[in-house]
Fold:
Amino acid sequence: MNGRRPIEPVAITDYTVSCAAGSGRAALLQAIGGQHSALREHDDARLPTWVGRVDGLEEAPLPAALAGWDCRATRLAWHGLQADGFVGAVQAARQRFGAARIGLALGTSASTIAVSEQAYRGLDADGRFPAPLRNERLNTPHALAAFVQQALQLEGPCVTVSTACSSSAKAFASAERWLRLELADAVVVAGVEALCASLLYGFRSLGLLSPEPCRPFGPRRRGISIGEAAGFALLQRGPGALQLLGYGESNDAHHMSSPHPQGLGAEAALDDALARAGLDSADIDFVNLHGTASERNDEVEAALLVRRYADSTHACATKGLTGHTMGAAGIVEAAICLLALDSGVLAGSAHTEAADPAFGPGFAARLRLLPARGRVRHAASHSFGFGGNNSVLVFGRA
Structure:
């Protein structure tokens, strides 16, 4: 404990996720319980890798009232909003509190950059974007948040959080602060990331893209598999069946892409989250690790797990199920924690055949390769982004 005063728990009154594993909580829970990976070979032979792609977006344009926002990323966001009755839950909150009292914090890495990619590929004779793609709404990092705010008819605070892979985890922290400071009475936390060339070719240029399904913490891991997803949660002040108990944030300030070699920033975020929750690491029953399947990230996180968590902790790495959904990873993996709290179904580590023996027997004892069932009181989710931008979330039941 670092002396920080615990926060008041924040109720998570509704949540949903749509990803390559399916749309909504039931589809994700089925994939978790059956260890069904949604990764598939990328359809572009120039880029041999595996991805987690959401089916059907090409044939699902936005409704006429939102047609001015149409692109793959906004279609994905709209698709995600339709699952699990989430739009209805937000509508009920809007009627209760008023549109101006509901905030939106949305995490994304690339937002709608695929629109700009397409525009740059088709510059006209004057070097300008082609006329159909000169869309000020879509050629901006804030496009997804602005779209979701309009789609949900919200008028409260609205922010885009873009801190690489920790983006939508840090959005939960923003939501808690807004609620505690009474800037809002409810907050929609979101994470949306669509597949695009910038992500795929960017990670290939760094030598981090795996030519096969990712194997987090495995001895034969070769890098990441990128996925896409849209996740949403509705947070309100006060107790609830599911609660955000704590969050921690830090920045290594060590390297543009590599984590601190001793994981000091990641551990600081964990300390912060536990202190805000009023818990010790021994109280955590379930941990969804960041587990990207890259060499250094897995090594540093494995050491952190052994150093800080009890032998009995069920730790897993779920990117083998969904792919690494980048800016949406925080909320996707938070949802997996919430499903564990809600259902007692604890995820395994798809595609990981064994823990890397270099991490030692202590790590192998904690990493669960197969899903299990059990009672979870407290769950933690790790999200560690580029440049050492770290976030840890702690969830619990009332």
About this structure: DSSP finds twelve helices and 16 strands in the chain.
